[in-house]
Amino acid sequence: MERVKVAVLGGSGYTAVELMKILLRHPGAEVAAVTSRQDEHVADLHPSLLGRLDLRCEPFDPDRLKAKGVRVAFGCLPHGTSMEAVPPLLDRGIRVIDLSADYRLRDPAVYREWYKEAHHDPANLARAVYGLPEVYGDRIATAELIANPGCYPQTAILGLAPLLANGLVEPAGIIVDSKSGVSGGGRTPKLPFHFPECNENFAAYSVGSHRHTPEIEQVLSDVAGRPVSVVFTPHLVPMDRGIFSTIYATPTRSVAEAELTELYRAYYAGKPFVRVRTTIPATKDTAGTNFLDVAVKVVRGGKVVVLAAEDNLVRGASGVAVQNFNRMFGFPETAGLL
Amino acid sequence: MERVKVAVLGGSGYTAVELMKILLRHPGAEVAAVTSRQDEHVADLHPSLLGRLDLRCEPFDPDRLKAKGVRVAFGCLPHGTSMEAVPPLLDRGIRVIDLSADYRLRDPAVYREWYKEAHHDPANLARAVYGLPEVYGDRIATAELIANPGCYPQTAILGLAPLLANGLVEPAGIIVDSKSGVSGGGRTPKLPFHFPECNENFAAYSVGSHRHTPEIEQVLSDVAGRPVSVVFTPHLVPMDRGIFSTIYATPTRSVAEAELTELYRAYYAGKPFVRVRTTIPATKDTAGTNFLDVAVKVVRGGKVVVLAAEDNLVRGASGVAVQNFNRMFGFPETAGLL
Amino acid sequence: MERVKVAVLGGSGYTAVELMKILLRHPGAEVAAVTSRQDEHVADLHPSLLGRLDLRCEPFDPDRLKAKGVRVAFGCLPHGTSMEAVPPLLDRGIRVIDLSADYRLRDPAVYREWYKEAHHDPANLARAVYGLPEVYGDRIATAELIANPGCYPQTAILGLAPLLANGLVEPAGIIVDSKSGVSGGGRTPKLPFHFPECNENFAAYSVGSHRHTPEIEQVLSDVAGRPVSVVFTPHLVPMDRGIFSTIYATPTRSVAEAELTELYRAYYAGKPFVRVRTTIPATKDTAGTNFLDVAVKVVRGGKVVVLAAEDNLVRGASGVAVQNFNRMFGFPETAGLL
Amino acid sequence: MERVKVAVLGGSGYTAVELMKILLRHPGAEVAAVTSRQDEHVADLHPSLLGRLDLRCEPFDPDRLKAKGVRVAFGCLPHGTSMEAVPPLLDRGIRVIDLSADYRLRDPAVYREWYKEAHHDPANLARAVYGLPEVYGDRIATAELIANPGCYPQTAILGLAPLLANGLVEPAGIIVDSKSGVSGGGRTPKLPFHFPECNENFAAYSVGSHRHTPEIEQVLSDVAGRPVSVVFTPHLVPMDRGIFSTIYATPTRSVAEAELTELYRAYYAGKPFVRVRTTIPATKDTAGTNFLDVAVKVVRGGKVVVLAAEDNLVRGASGVAVQNFNRMFGFPETAGLL
Lengths: 338, 338, 338, 338
Description:
homotetramer, 20% strand
């Protein structure tokens, strides 16, 4: 079987290298091009790839990608930059799985509100499918443009979906207290991610203002069939990778823990990458994998507490991107991911 | 001025060594005895004390402590053990600052419910003063027995006290999402604290069942003047020390962030170890100190989010113990602690 | 093609879980049995395997393994225990890849000297092949019993082999200064590996007395064709995994760095898992892989400094075990390992 | 007693904040000025100082410092910058303790060779005293300009001094294999110190070319009374602070471990900050202190192995600076440092 030629756009960061590692194991994909402003061999940017991938970074040139036979491009570009690169690719018939935030929010006004700039490509927003296979799975196979979901939102969405789809919790004011490893901040050196600053340290950031908030609300409102609002607080954990979300919701009626666990198991039946647990999830159990582990608890006073864990670079970004790729090109959903 | 002779009971753990380091800097204290079942020189148990403290551990013997002129004992014993050691000390006129949980809960029935054993010394429960100087400061100077507060509870209590004292938030169902460094789990090797298990990992534990819950509720109910209930979820952070609590409360009326910050500043005026901030606290800013940093935010939807950080071994245990010692023996509140 | 049925002996530790993860990806292996004294489902011992491996641990019973069709057993048992399990397996025609130290040293007297107990199975010592494919590759395919190499020794041996095979450095008193992540200490909780003890800490241990010393010397003496002696100092690094060795040797003649690099490249040509670099290796470049990265430098004063890095659990244990398995059962050397 | 007014030059980095914390505890010092190009309150640069130091950074102006009554300036400036600031201070009678490398090497040609630029202030080189109290203690009290020693060199120098002073080891080709926490790299964000790059990673750097090499050799040659040469290899450890050096030397005659330990004890008698141990030092035992722990071992083959540990920011920089300050202004050597 011929491998599908893929391009990785913006090859210098953490999601890009994670993606390349997954694709190198994938039986049906071939990394045909890696673009970057850095004119270097890929393995010089990422020494872990020494001996694995013999490619030099090239400038972004959609015609050249087309000429190489690239059928799909994974965008690992920053938001704002991504929406410049996507239109010329789509115009040339190259499908795009965009890992940036640019095509996740349906309403350009919401984009402007949270990202503080106008959306430059509103025309393609309508074509974009939010690439969360467990929620929008039926639309992914035929999509030309996938808005790959954010890392934090997946834990909140998959953690709450069974409850909201069944009207079991109040949709307003759900609390999502999330904790992320530092690789979520990207590879550009900045003081908050300087080792002696964030090591042996724990703190919240972007309290009440993190850009993943509207993304969580948009998808959960779809799931619930009515407006959902969350209070979302991200924190930085001194570790490389992993996201853990502790979610607090108020049930609409008295619920039992065992009943909810069954509900989750039924909701995620046939979804190979969501593991419903009765023990407490931990990020390390999911490290380097595409699994999202979830448990649901009922505590004193009747509150529902959902615990969700994932690897932010795999499940939270590059792994789910390959899961989308598998659906788009007819591979088994788990190809390259186990 | 003659130094006050003190004993450290249970000298092998982390709170004990932290306490000894503080006391070695204190102008008015002298460590006259360290007790432990381990028959070793203190500096062999804690090589960081090499050349600092020339004492050998001795078995616990209240008469011997009395004979040495010990006026106060700091109890660094496990709960359950502590309430065996306290009565003979009090009987001999040795005051006690107990860092265990044994004398924190006023009602022995609540102790039994959460600690799964009967309280052996209910008679002394009534004498015990909860050693949180910012709340019970007027009672500490004359106390014979101090129940030194738990590490997590201090962040929850001091984080919420100004709001509850003023009736500004609903007293039921307040969410306290706390994160602690691993030293909070003590020095006895156990699998959850084995380096390759908890390093590069993040998870919740004791969801809905942590023993600090009734302690938080007891003190906050005192502050509020009516019953307060919390949903408390602790998490383990891969770092040595530090606690960060993210607290979510529902205001009883519309509130503005600046108004609340002013309220906190007024409430903690003259309290040298609570720092009210407008920036986001971080555990590292408090590392190795007795400071508890707190900020109060009002977020989308009107929820109040309080952020509180401290060092779990200093402020959360041994530092506040010395703060209590200072009040008990007439030293300036900050002696040995800056 | 039918998969080769394998057993994992001693399934509760870190090398076992790493091995199972590799085998689950291997196209030609099937994990047919996992033995342990712990009567639990494998995924309860290792939650990362949830949904991956549906096996319950069973007691060690060589007849039962034979009946299941197991053709090779990977021994992840402690030294001392391993040499009890190996003979009954070999007797039943089950080949063994032993990850313990029990069959690495040819001379039982040397075993007794370093491991402080007599060897119980000297008869099989002669059958054992030291499973370092880059050195003893021609003997592995037909071996019945593989003594899988130690983690530290591989960095020392592969770091020095090209020099010693060519008589380019003095064979006596070579200095091997090695640093290892904490998983090398195993999964049993002990104070030195308790998080608050080893986190934010760096120290040497077993100075002048580590048991990997004779193993390094035995193999390097084979390579050199004359006795080689080393001063080996291991250190503990506050990280999960990875070994880095800094090796100091005195050249027998004036040498140039470029010449040595070429020598290394020639020596390791066709060896897919040794990467000769001109940049400085780092453990993270090899994390989770079977690669051993090596660089050779000539510094002021003419000393040769070799830098070698590997993942201690993969290359240092379970990965090289699968590399041996591949040679023993006719799979490509890299099967399951890229 | 009137406190000595001091200035801290270059207040934004790690050695500066560490120094300020020590000085705030010092009974005889007053931080009268902090200079920086960053026009901010000191506590905004270093939130750990909130409530401790109410000073705003000011531009460097020697006249203004003089007018404020500053008697000594601690220079926490980068090398190259420091030698611009020192002459005007000395000209105004302000003594300087320079924590940069600018005045450590006696010979400007050596400076140029290793720092790749000409020395701008050779005139003052002759006035500078290398501020290692255990070696040059008699010259420090009256010095106008102290070249505060480097972090790595102190472990190498104090680790080897007793041996070299007594001619017990060969002076050529001594191997110093050193490992440092990341704060040694400073506070400016750079890729090698970006958390996800250096966390869970271990590697050597500057192999054969680190600038501390000539400093080590210069001082050890003084101690030995003849030229000493070292092979110095630094490594980066994923921890905040701490340096551990493993030193390999060849004895000039047969030596016994106990004999050497006694020699070290005699050599460091009366030196309060060097702790000679028979157990293995660990960086954590010295964390946050001015102690340098050292042990000497004799291993197989007769090699001498010295193990030395310190806190790189305290003993390695700001602590020893205060130790020098104490000698310069007549305070007890341990003032502010215990």
